[in-house]
Design goal:
Helices cover 28% and strands 9% of the residues. It has 19 helices and 15 strands. Helix 10 links the parallel strand 7 and strand 8. The longest helix has 21 residues. The radius of gyration is 37 Å and the shape is globular.
């Protein structure tokens, strides 16, 4: 049996000698190789380390730096940290090096959280949210992600809260005794935490007239910081129930929509325009500011100038800003000049959000017209479904015409669900609307991108006619309407555009008429005034106003002839059916009758043609292709051999015309 070596370590004589072993390679000490002794870490440890680093990065990325700092300082401290501290302010050093602060420590909160009776809002201590975390975690089942369609409603006043729908309880501690500065800071912090959880697209509050001022200020600042629109409702939430019908994409364009109103005053008349301007002032714009441009003729009625001296726009605003443009040219103007004057009056500064509202002096608007107009704009221009299906939507009409705009003024009856189920959009609970391929000059809004395209079309259209020596081809548009309607109809038929018309004014039980067109005080447009007859003869025989031999030649010189005979306005019968306007300033009654609101989707497959007399295909695409081919050949200067497809550029209509203009016959 071999004994262990440790038993002989005490006696060197009995111990085993290792002298017979070979010598080491070196007498000096050499450490072991680090390469051979280092063991590679396990793959599991490397994976766990990477996961930990990712978690820390996500936490620091999701939580803003402002929330990592504990809220231990009073929230009425100066925001600018670069300014040197004044006497007695925190941060000032004493002579012995100590810190001197004249600000007393925050008072201890009262034992109860009841509202004090002596308005002692003095507590300014650290902010805590005892209920926010619990209420936020209770909504985690909704699976909110970084990009979603959430809409944030915020309120601080109980009366305002009854009209909104809160999603989390972000009331800080000791709210009843806190200062306004502390409450404002708590709102900013609370909304920031809610925004980090839900990622809302819109923040909706009441105005500072209804809700607490500190809450409105903080909500507006927070919405601007996180980059979402802030919708401030100036009235009861029930007046804006149509907001609940819009998706987050539509609400995201709330504060971007810019509407510019264009009105043309008739010569030697003031009553009709004064009536229109008064109806504009009575309308409810819920804080939006609309631009207004008034085109005046050469011979302005003196009472109109007196009225404009005291006219205030925007209504209920401390500012007074609107544009007046007066024509210098004396006498009548041609159709081409009148068209250029109208179309050049406005240019949308942002094609995606700036729109043009054309109003005739014969129009009178209901106080609720802008509620419906903005609702329709947001629904059918900016919603998720409209971007794909309604790219050919030209605009939105506020008028339901009683006749077509054609030269024979054929009576027009709006479609019904029983008579034409393909034309009326939506169900019985939806607001009845339909799509019509006919422009409107009485009360219609044209989208900014389509208006800029119309300007491009008009430039090429007039240049093409001059180069080719073609006569201005006659469209079937009545001379009761301004001349630019003829060119707008051409573009509409070439592109397959259409307008959204309301059919609910034709419902017998409906009392939601948005606009009415008056017959009295109607005057022909300047470019269509008669020069071969006296006003007495025309008033006796108004049907001759559409006769071609009595219409002024569009290409004649306006400088010839007596100016006095040309400046006499011609009174004819407009033939419009006047309807009583809705008296309410909201569309609540309309939504009570049609609770589903405007249809979510509109089908452009079956759009009504501009006239029922002319034989055309019921399919929009077929009749658009047929008219486009004829227009490019006869008006655009493109021969039959130059009919290949041309790329269509945004905001331009150059593809409808060719560089080499060939002689052709007008349409």
């Amino acid at each position: 049996m071999t004994l262990p070596r440790w038993g002989y370590l005490g006696d060197e004589e009995l111990g085993k000698k290792f002298d017979d072993h070979g010598p080491r390679t070196s007498a000096h000490f050499k450490p072991r190789s680090t390469t051979s002794s280092w063991k590679m870490p396990r793959r599991r440890r490397v994976l766990l380390t990477l996961i930990g680093i990712c978690i820390v990065y996500i936490l620091f990325k999701a939580v803003p730096p402002s929330e990592l700092t504990p809220a231990t300082k009073p929230f009425d401290a100066p925001l600018n940290n670069n300014d040197p501290p004044g006497p007695g302010e925190p941060g000032q050093r004493a002579e012995n090096g100590g810190s001197v602060s004249s600000e007393p420590p925050p008072k201890a909160p009262p034992a109860t959280d009841e509202i004090p009776t002596n308005d002692s809002y003095e507590y300014n201590g650290p902010i805590k949210f005892p209920f926010l975390t619990q209420s936020l975690h209770s909504n985690q089942a909704l699976h909110y992600s970084w990009y979603n369609n959430a809409v944030l409603f915020a309120a601080a006043n109980l009366q305002a809260l009854s009209y909104l729908l809160p999603l989390a309880y972000a009331r800080p501690d000791h709210a009843s005794t806190s200062t306004d500065a502390r409450m404002e800071s708590s709102v900013i912090t609370g909304l920031s935490r809610i925004a980090n959880t839900f990622r809302p697209k819109v923040v909706i509050t009441h105005s500072h007239d209804i809700d607490e001022t500190f809450h409105w200020t903080a909500a507006k600042a927070t919405a601007g910081r996180i980059g979402v629109p802030h919708i401030s409702l100036p009235a009861r939430g029930g007046d804006f129930i149509w907001l609940s019908k819009l998706d987050s994409h539509s609400l995201g364009a709330w504060d971007k929509v810019d509407v510019q109103i264009l009105v043309q005053a008739p010569p030697a008349s003031s009553g009709s325009l004064t009536r229109l301007l008064r109806s504009l002032q009575r309308a409810d714009y819920f804080g939006d500011t609309l631009g207004l441009t008034i085109e005046l003729p050469h011979n302005v009625d003196p009472p109109l100038l007196e009225y404009l001296k005291s006219f205030h726009w925007p209504p209920r605003s401390v500012h007074n800003h609107f544009t007046l443009r007066r024509r210098i040219q004396h006498g009548n103007i041609t159709s081409e000049e009148a068209t250029l004057r109208t179309v050049d009056s406005l240019y949308p500064k942002n094609p995606a959000y700036s729109h043009v509202l054309i109003l005739s002096p014969q129009t009178e608007l209901a106080p609720s017209y802008y509620h419906y107009l903005k609702y329709a704009i947001l629904q059918h221009k900016y919603s998720r479904s409209a971007k794909e299906s309604l790219h050919r939507l030209l605009g939105i009409s506020l008028e339901l015409p009683s006749s077509t705009p054609t030269i024979d003024s054929e009576p027009f009856t709006p479609p019904t669900r029983s008579g034409s189920p393909v034309a009326i959009q939506g169900t019985d609970k939806h607001i009845p609307v339909f799509l019509w391929q006919a422009p409107n000059s009485n009360a219609a809004l044209y989208f900014g991108d389509k208006w800029i395209e119309f300007q491009s079309f008009l430039s090429s259209r007039l240049s093409s006619a001059r180069r080719a020596g073609l006569k201005m081809h006659t469209n079937p548009v009545s001379k009761k309407f301004p001349s630019w309607m003829e060119y707008m109809l051409e573009l509409t038929r070439c592109r397959g555009y259409y307008l959204l018309y309301p059919s609910f004014p034709a419902v017998k039980s409906s009392h939601a008429v948005l606009s009415t067109i008056h017959n009295e005080l109607y005057r022909l447009p300047e470019e269509h005034t008669l020069i071969s007859q006296s006003p007495e003869l025309i008033s006796e025989n108004p049907q001759n106003s559409n006769s071609q031999q009595h219409i002024a030649d569009p290409n004649r010189s306006s400088s010839s002839g007596s100016s006095s005979s040309l400046d006499i306005p011609q009174e004819v019968e407009l033939g419009s059916v006047e309807l009583p306007l809705a008296e309410s300033s909201t569309i609540s009654s309309l939504l009570q009758q049609f609770p589903a609101g405007l249809p979510d989707e509109l089908s452009p497959k079956h759009v009504l043609p501009y006239s029922q007399k002319y034989p055309t295909s019921p399919d929009l695409v077929e009749r658009t292709q047929a008219y486009l081919k004829e227009f490019r050949e006869k008006v655009g200067g493109c021969g039959a051999q130059v009919q290949q497809q041309v790329a269509v550029e945004d905001l331009k209509a150059d593809d409808l015309f060719c560089s080499e203009v060939e002689e052709g016959v007008a349409l």
